[in-house]
Write the structure tokens for this entry.
Amino acid sequence: MEAFKLMQMASAYGQSLLSYHLGGAPSPFSASFAVSNRCNLRCSYCNFPLMEEPELTLAQVDTLFDRLREMGVRRLGILGGEPLYRSDIIDIIHQAKKKDFFISLNTNLLLYPKFRDRLADVDHFFTSLDGDPEKHELNRGKQSYDKILSAIRDIVGRGKPLTAICVVTEPDRAMADYLLALADREHIQIHFQPECFDTEIVLRSADDSMNQTAIREFWHYLATCKRQGASIASSADYLEYIANWEDFRKSSVLDMDSKCAAGRGFLFVDSTGHAYPCAYTKGKAEGVNLLREDWRGTFKHTPCTRCIVGPMLEFNLLFNRPVRSVFNALKQYG
Ligand SMILES: C[S@@+](CC[C@H](N)C(=O)[O-])C[C@H]1O[C@@H](n2cnc3c(N)ncnc32)[C@H](O)[C@@H]1O
Ligand code: SF4
């Protein structure tokens, strides 16, 4: 990562940390922006493609990026739906680059060949890999595996860091071992996250008969692999936190003794330009139209305070156990 961007991010994160712990005006250092809900896949657990919502024009995206900069945001996650489904995605990435954001891109990579030579401004790639070809295509659709693997090789060959997200739908150690061997071979990292239930952006509800003991043992196993040096992006704290979660049928809870950094340290912006503390609170918290309003004067609190929602949990550790988490984040996420 360029030293200048790293310093900008560190300073923005420091301000977020102060705001979170001292309770001042929100000062999010990171934002995720779903540029479109449309998608070329219909994954078994995801509701994005079924949420038909308008998209911002390039001029509106520019206004949004100015607003995010004013609010202190320095890290911008571009996602969807499938961001490469927008024909003007390269313009959006160029706009983000001009505003000096650290840019990450979450993509299923199926359209990567069309854009491969025009993605140099992306600082970090995230993609999705749920297991071996059979398991992956069961969750994410036929013929998606081989194309992703060749795109991953191209990205890594260009020297870009890449993390593959595995949505854990079953506690299957052999599948985790398969992905970790692939990660070593391909020089990537794997971020494991539990399948989440019961929010607007996901498709399924939890199965009451799920084997909670097996799930717990699986996450302890991943924490052990991490400590032994496996190519797992997530921190050991994150993996142990999930292993100790009380009830996997619920992805988040409102616990008055806990506090969540969503909204103060980071936020989510949907395809219409409305902001929420995080993606999983869309539909539970009121959205703020960032084209018209400033988040800093409107945000009050989150509808839940503890969760096992992958990226949000890792961000929360960044705010609640800053020293250890920053060390891991620098090592793993660039
Ligand atoms: C919404 S997608 C957008 C980016 C891109 N279309 C992709 O699939 O990589 C972002 C990540 O969320 C994950 N995801 C989708 N539904 C989920 C769920 N119910 N629980 C946990 N993660 C989920 C996807 O697998 C993907 O890695
Ligand atoms: S997880 Fe990604 S690829 Fe799959 S349907 Fe959702 S947005 Fe599309």
The chain has one domain: 27-333.
